[in-house]
Amino acid sequence: MTATMNPTQVLIADALTAVTPAGLPFRFTAYDGSSAGPEDSAVHMHLANERGLSYILTAPGDLGLVRAYVAGDLEIEGSHPANPYELMRLMLRQLSFQRPTPAEALRIVRGLGWNHLKPPPPPPQEHLPRWRRTFEGLRHSKTRDRAAIQHHYDVSNTFYEWVLGPSMAYTCAVYPSADATLEQAQAEKFDLVARKLDLRPGMRLLDVGCGWGGMVRHAAREYGVQALGVTLSSEQAAWARAAIERDGLGGLAEVRFGDYRDIAEREFDAISSIGLTEHIGVRNYPAYFGFLLDRLKPGGRLLNHSITRHDNRLRPTGAFIDRYIFPDGELTGSGRIITEMQDTGFEVRHSENLREHYAKTLAAWSDNLQAHWDEAVEEVGLATAKVWGLYLAACRVGFERNEVQLHQVLAVKLHPDSTSDFPLRPTWLS
Questions:
Q1: How many domains is the chain partitioned into structurally?
Q2: Structural domain boundaries enclosing 86
Q3: 226-229, long-range: CB within 8 Å, 24+ apart, which pairs?
Q4: How far apart are the first and last CA of the chain?
Q5: Across 31-141, where does the E strand assignment appear?
Q6: Rounded CA gap, 351 and 366, in Å?
Q7: In 3-state terms, what secondary structure has residue 194?
Q8: Domain CATH number, residue 339
Q9: Structural contact between residues 31 and 50, judged by C-beta atoms closer than 8 angstroms
Q10: What angle do CA 118, 128, 60 make, to 5 degrees?
Q11: Are 334 and 402 in contact (CB under 8 A)?
Q12: Where are the extended beta strands (E) located within 153-234?
């Protein structure tokens, strides 16, 4: 093979090993016949064609790899596409890239072929880059937020039923024991929120970003609370309304399709925000928490449940998550969230990190997707199903590695005399 090679030609596997000096933790092969990595690895990645190489060269990092994988140009053996956890674990824990020098990069690109620097069209599942979303309005305007939410949540209610299970809860569960089922853990999550909010019959609860109405229905059914939920996803709202009707909770529970900023009612006894903060933008925290404070009566509690970073440094969201999963999503640490809540006027009373619980939740969702893989592919298509498998597995590794966390922060709107209506010790732990 080398006898007929152009002297300047570079084999794909050689190019890969040049930027991974510590070696590959999995087997890699390419369409040019080259290979690298341990031959006995249980995980095998194969680059099938030139388009895949163009994806990788024109979008270095996770975006190019994802494009090639979603398009079918990068194949993975040794793990199910619904749950490529082992590959993600190896890549995120053991694989390290080293940026080549300009001269080395030039040599590699020249050897692989200049024609591969023409980017192929991205897969249709990919959202526009952040800077090109201006046609949807300014970032975190009502119009653009609605478009971002619908990109992710209006995939298919049937698809979400297969992945999330009967609870239709798309946030971190709380496992009361290591062997608890996903449904038991999601019920415990809603009940923990209710206990932290000290819900009692006759109270009024506002649940912003209510999803499929799980918290609204739990509060109404288990605590006799008058619960109002709001979501920007029309699909979620339709499903939630049907579930409320099915459960006979119409007299207590309501879900609206709309923006939480359009809620006119005030004097709520409690507010729950479960998985919304990630979508509103860090710069909008003052307005967000100010709005929620304004909707509470004195003594009313807020429970903010959201994904957080392990530190409070601002950094851009990765291209894969921003383009394929949560357009315009943004994370920060619990310290920034607590600071913004305090500066708005809330008194923060309790914070809890549920990082390990989210890793277990994601593993359960991956298992559900794998169990319903054929139906999921038929419902949303192979490419979208593969995106979800990759996303769930990568996020699971992220929580296991403490790159991301999940914090519940409990706060109260004080009375004018600074009383809080809190007992001397927490009651939600008993």
A1: 2
A2: 2-117
A3: 226/202, 226/252, 227/252, 227/253, 227/254, 228/204, 228/254, 228/255, 228/256, 228/263, 228/265, 229/253, 229/254, 229/255, 229/256
A4: 71
A5: 35-36, 44-47, 74-77
A6: 28
A7: helix
A8: 3.40.50.150
A9: yes
A10: 45
A11: no
A12: 204-208, 226-231
CA–CA–CA angle 116, 122, 127 (5° rounding)? 145
CB 70 within 8 A of CB 383: yes
Length of the chain in terms of residues written: 430
Q: Residue 52 has which token pair?
A: 């895949």
Would you say residue 329 lies in a domain?
yes
Query: Do residue 261 and residue 384 come from a single domain?
Result: yes
**Residue-level pLDDT at 92:** 85
> Based on the number of CB atoms within 10 Å of its own CB, is 201 exposed (0-12), middle (13-18) or buried (19 or more)?
exposed
Tokens for 48? 């099938």
Which two tokens mark 83?
A: 């749950």
Class of residue 40 by CB neighbours under 10 A (exposed 0-12, middle 13-18, buried 19+)? exposed
How many CB atoms lie under 10 A from the CB of residue 221?
17
Q: Is residue 422 situated within a structural domain? A: no
pLDDT tens for each residue of the chain, 430 residues long: 344 555 678 999 999 999 998 899 999 999 999 999 999 999 999 999 999 999 999 997 789 999 999 999 999 999 899 999 999 999 888 888 888 899 999 999 999 999 999 999 999 888 877 655 555 555 556 665 555 555 455 568 999 999 999 999 999 999 999 999 999 999 999 999 999 999 999 999 999 999 999 999 999 999 999 999 999 999 999 999 999 999 999 999 999 999 999 999 999 999 999 999 999 999 999 999 999 999 999 999 999 999 999 999 988 888 888 888 888 889 999 999 999 999 999 999 999 999 999 999 999 999 999 999 999 999 999 999 999 999 999 999 999 999 999 999 999 999 999 999 999 999 998 6
Structural tokens at position 143: 């119009």
pLDDT of residue 200: 98
Q: What angle do CA 207, 209, 211 make, to 5 degrees?
A: 100
Tell whether 341 and 235 lie within a shared domain.
yes
Q: What is the pLDDT of residue 196?
A: 98
Residue carrying structure tokens 């946030």? 171
Residue 423 resides in a domain: no
Q: Copy the structure tokens of residue 229.
A: 């939920």
Q: Is 297 found in the same domain as 176? A: yes
Q: Per-residue DSSP letters for 340-377?
A: HHHHHTPEEEEEEE-HHHHHHHHHHHHHHHHHTHHHHH
Does 227 lie in the same domain as 322?
yes
Is residue 150 located within the same domain as residue 219?
Answer: yes
Tokens 């959201």, located at residue: 306
